[in-house]
Write a structure and sequence with these properties.
alpha+beta; 8-stranded mixed sheet; 5-stranded mixed sheet
Length: 526
């Protein structure tokens, strides 16, 4: 009797277990709502016109404030009057509304499906559909690259785009790049200059006047990409450009030579576009190394102007500008020779690096330092220890720092100022410590009077009100490479201009020298 009851119970348990297993398998085989929608509308979902507007639209639909109003009644009303959606959700693109108005468009067919309407009311289902679309379609950066491949081959675009992408990727800029702001920029390119002052004027001009560039900036896929730094980097990789120039010390790591030996390191630049000048400092351990000399590299060309090197116990600083923007994207900025005073581990570090564009705008930059390791004695049979080789630089020339020379290569002698009685007043040189710069005192002349700080008055111009001294050419409160580049870019011009630092109505070596003499000075803005 007991065995019979036990057999019945065992059979019941077996049947229940089989039912549970069958139910689980059946449930596992039923596609989710997102999978059903994707399978049903795969062709439409992967079409280029839908791909151009759908990702951005799904992001808007998923927002909590929009989920509250996305009821079946509202969706049906939007299908009847697509303009209603734009009034309810302001961030929806005009391209999406246009497609929704077309009777046989893929978007209209898609949103008329009750399953799609149900999906749009479930954030989890929207996320799943978005994931399915990402897996099935090429990455966003790839789609944009393929769509505008011919545009990206243009020389003017390859020159401007790296700096633009690098700046748009910065956290402070990303905080402003909301979809509505990007659309406003597409409609009014001058607004981009307000948001990101470092953007060059020639790129703003392209946005305004070039039809191909205008189509590019109005692409909704691009709007999505510009809000994702990782996607920006991916597009830069496809374009075979770096989003930021890199300034590095080579070799990156090497063993210290013996005490008393000299070696050279090179400061190199790569991924660089539209560079006209630079400022940088190399920091070293004075207990391990002694600075010997430096040489100009081959990156900048022409009549390169180098300000006197600034020395400190543990660093050396350089400021260099060229007469025109270099076409090189990589090269050697300079080489430095050191002498070893102690065999020990130390670092060669880059600090205060600024790259200036042809317009005197600071470019974003990444830096890479170098490591000197203490030699480890290695005993080998019959072999001598391998000594590190100094870095050789081809096509470089030694830069004479002092004295400063004029365009005719003549040493500039102090010019005595004349008093009202016509007597010459002899200027007395000012003694300064080794690491300080002597500030020249402007002298009054018959044609102009320089007041520190300005305004500057000349016979041909009215007084120009300035918030900082004349050698702070861009009036940002700091005298640096950007001011040097601005003066160099107006070299030879005559007449009133902010680049005429000494007020003699011509921009020349004297103005460059004045700015160089005040490098590193800071002025508080009123």
């Amino acid at each position: 009797m007991m065995s019979h009851i036990f057999s019945k119970r065992l059979l019941s348990i077996f049947i229940i277990g089989m039912c549970v297993i069958f139910a689980m398998r059946t449930a596992a085989q039923v596609p989710s709502l997102a999978e059903q929608v994707f399978q049903k509308h795969q062709t439409a979902l992967l079409s280029e016109d839908v791909q151009a507007v759908l990702p951005e639209t799904l992001v808007e639909f998923k927002k909590p404030e929009n989920q509250e109003i996305l009821t079946p009644v509202l969706i049906e009303a939007v299908l009847e009057n697509p303009d209603l959606l734009k009034r309810i959700i302001l961030e929806i693109s005009n391209e999406f509304i246009t497609l929704l108005k077309q009777d046989n468009s893929d978007i209209r067919i898609l949103f008329s499906d009750p399953d799609v309407q149900t999906l749009l009311q479930t954030p989890e289902a929207i996320d799943e559909l978005t994931h399915l679309l990402e897996v099935a379609s090429p990455p966003l950066a790839t789609r944009i690259f393929e769509r505008y491949e011919l545009l990206f081959q243009r020389e003017d675009i390859r020159e401007s785009l790296p700096g633009v992408l690098a700046k748009l990727k910065q956290p402070d800029t990303q905080a402003l790049l909301r979809p509505s702001m990007i659309k406003l920029v597409a409609e009014n390119p001058d607004l981009l200059k307000v948001i990101v002052p470092e953007i060059e004027d020639k790129f703003i001009t392209l946005l305004k006047e070039d039809p191909e560039v205008n189509t590019f900036i109005n692409d909704s896929d691009l709007h999505v990409l510009l809000q994702n730094p990782a996607e920006i980097d991916e597009l830069a990789a496809l374009l075979d450009i770096g989003t930021e120039p890199i300034v590095s010390i080579v070799p990156a790591s090497f063993e210290s030579p013996d005490v008393g030996e000299q070696f050279a390191i090179a400061v190199v630049i790569s991924n660089a576009y539209n560079v006209r000048g630079y400022r940088l400092s190399v920091q070293f351990d004075p207990e391990a190394l002694r600075y010997v000399s430096w040489e100009q590299g081959n990156y900048l060309s022409g009549d390169v102007f180098a300000a006197p090197v600034n020395f400190a116990p543990d660093r050396i600083s350089f400021v260099v500008t060229a007469p025109m923007t270099t076409e090189n994207t990589q090269g050697i900025l300079l080489t430095i020779t050191f002498e070893v005073v102690a065999e020990k581990a130390s670092m060669l570090s880059l600090n205060d690096v600024i790259l200036a564009s042809g317009e005197g705008i600071e470019l974003p930059v990444e830096t890479e330092d170098s490591e000197i390791v203490e030699p480890i004695p290695v005993e080998t049979e019959g072999d001598d220890a391998v000594e590190p080789m100094p870095v050789e630089v081809e096509e470089s020339e030694i830069v004479e720092l002092m004295p400063m020379e004029t365009e005719e290569s003549e040493v500039v002698e102090p010019i005595p100022a004349e008093t009202e009685d016509g007597e010459a007043v002899e200027t007395t040189p000012t003694e300064a410590e080794e690491s300080e710069t002597v500030e020249p005192i402007p002298e009054p002349t018959e044609e102009s009077e320089i007041v520190e700080p300005t305004p500057v008055e000349t016979e041909e111009s009215e007084a120009v009100e300035r918030s900082t001294p004349a050698w702070d050419v861009n009036e940002d409160g700091f005298v640096n490479i950007l001011d040097l580049v601005l003066v160099r870019s107006h070299f030879g011009e005559e007449g009133p201009t902010p680049s005429d630092v000494n007020g003699d109505n011509i921009v020349n070596i004297l103005d460059l020298t004045l700015v160089a003499n005040h490098l590193g000075e800071y002025y508080e803005q009123p």
